[in-house]
Fold:
Amino acid sequence: MSTSTKLEAILKDVADGAALPLERAVTLPRETYIDEEFFAFERDNIFKKDWMCLAHVSQLKTPGSFVAIDLFDEPLVVVRGHDDQIRVLSRVCAHRAMDIMPDDPSFPREGETRLLVCPYHKWSYDLDGSLRGCSQMHKAEGFEKKDWRLSEFRSEVWNGFVFVNFDGQAKPLAAQYEEFSRLIAPWNVAEMELAIEFEWECEFNWKVMVENWMESYHHIGTHATTLNPSMPGELTWADAERPYFIRAHLPYTDKLRAELRASASGEGPKVPGFRAIKGLSEDQANEWGLYLGFPCFMFLTTHDRAIWYRLLPISAGRCKLLTTTLVAPSAKEDPDYEKALVSEGEMLRNFHSEDMVVNAAVQNGLKSSRAVRGRLSHLEEPVWLIQRYLAARAAGRYPEKANRAPYHGPQAMQAAE
Ligand code: FES
Ligand SMILES: [Fe+2]
Structure:
């Protein structure tokens, strides 16, 4: 089979699967997780055409603060300029193409700087990428500094998150995620700060990660003792399909709700965590609000924090992940804040370690010739929605907004009454 015929066959299988109703849904073909040609297709047709999240503004507080990130053979630096603008610049020097921040312990990959300096021949660039200084170039005929600069990628800051769009053609994120913005408005995410961060080298496909992130059927097995007691998988549900993001709800048990109420009023023991976010509705304060901004912006709201996972796909079987916790500035006023940082860091590390084990084991299973296209539970609706996004993007479109009540969960029951 020629390579393009192979890719076409996989894409047809993806499209056929995505066309099935949820009740008959199956998993994606295994090739979509392990085939490098399919990954290259995703890179060129999805990741480079959509918005990828790189950083949060709290990592870039002052002019000159920067973070280096590598994505799809593009060495990038996210940097705040003297004009306070955040830009995504290429780290490729305009002289002889050196990556100006080599991946070596002697060169910082984040921090604060006045100029971006290439270590090779010391060409120096302003924080907006324009060439500021270069010595011994006065005999180069017609050479003018203004013609040389670090290249810039299209970026957008949305609710404090810095996104890049490589091909420069995507619809503005503010428009794509307009409803997403409204739903998370009470958390004021742009004002929040990254308080906890862990980096993970992942030996699995990016879709293994986002599927695991979005479905909570696995609480029953993977998180039986960690998340399931407070957010049992069978109570979780998803909103109807949207073009640019998925939203799922993980309601707290009545027991946890009562404990939070007692803790807030001082009538019961303090529930571990941060100071509660103000201005949340009953529903917002009593669930984990789980989101996937397509293709791989993983975001979650709770009564006292937000959680963000930054995923950088590397190849079919590998990606790099940063798991974070964001807190409101007022959380720091709590005398127990430092203690909470430790306990909540452990909490995140514990449940994510459980996910790391299953994700690597899923990838291992997908490599096997015996992996089949399994059937999905109604609790795995987000997995089906991810497939539908993939199939739509492969066809050059986005999913359509479904005008109906959710298939299950409390709103589905209300609609049925
Ligand atoms: S390659 Fe950067 S200064 Fe020469
Ligand atoms: Fe999980």
Q: What stands out?
A: The chain has two domains: 3-49+191-416, 53-158. The longest strand covers residues 193-202. The chain has a mean pLDDT of 96. The pocket of FE2/S2 (inorganic) cluster (ligand 1) is lined by residues 93, 95-96, 98, 118, 120-121, 123 (CB under 6 Å).
